[in-house]
Amino acid sequence: MLDTHAHILWNLDDGSKDLDMSVKMLQIAAGSGTKAIFATPHVIEKFTKPSWAKIKERTQLLQQLAREKQIDIMLYPGAEVQMNWELLPELGAGGAYCLNGGRYMLVELPASELPAYADEFWYELELKGVTPVLAHPERYRQLHENKDLLLLWRRRGMLMQCNSGSFTGMFGKSVCENAKALLANGLVDLLGSDGHRSEGRNTDMSQAAAVIRQLAGEEVLRQLTETNPQAILKNQEIELKQPKVFLEDKPKSFWQKLFGK
Q1: 203: left (phi over 0), alpha (psi -120 to 50) or beta
Q2: Is 0.85 topped by the overall pTM?
Q3: Dist CA 33 CA 72 (whole Å)
Q4: Which domains does the chain have, with CATH numbers?
Q5: What are phi and psi of 218, to 5 degrees?
Q6: In Å, what is the CA distance from 136 to each residue of 35, 82, 129, 161, 184?
Q7: Fewer Cβ neighbours under 10 Å: the N or C end of the chain?
Q8: Distance of alpha carbon 224 from alpha carbon 159, whole angstroms
């Protein structure tokens, strides 16, 4: 498996607190079947904004330490970029803040509300040649209040990354149901641990993998954890599935149909 979303670089954000914790997170990941991880620290204007150079440097240092400790895992640089207009000038150029420096960028929505400039933000990324990957869409209150947006964004080519903990109930029943509904409709492209520490919210994706295998089958699990992540590493196009639902006049139609209501 390849973990597309992990806060494994030490002392850069609210993830790993020190190098020892980063090593423990690597050991947990490797011990649970993960073969590679994208290191994706938060990039948030005015709060947490490590430079792209520092992210790459720490990824390389942690990779070297993994080799020395004989931890069988590969590490690739990335970031979890918050949707923020002020960050746009720094994004994408030379692969800055993109997964492995390629064309794909993991983007999270702000915690409080969906910015009015959201569509413009996606458009500006497209102009830069960046393909957005929406981090954990199952967890956003904003999308539940603007339910058809997700389908619109999908039709524009956006990828979706769900958290492993969402499938195991770590974030509550509602989020778990959301993740399973997205999976059932082909709207999950990548799986990430979103691991922040060595205990609790860690880098073990094996339980979620078992859930996905049971719900959707081995081939879908392989797509989320091997085929699509490998395409990102090779900077190749990922074929997106479109859900078998259609926009209607009522704003709740999309999510109602996803949940079978």
Answers
A1: alpha
A2: yes
A3: 10
A4: 79-258 (3.20.20.140)
A5: -65, -40
A6: 21, 12, 22, 5, 16
A7: C
A8: 11
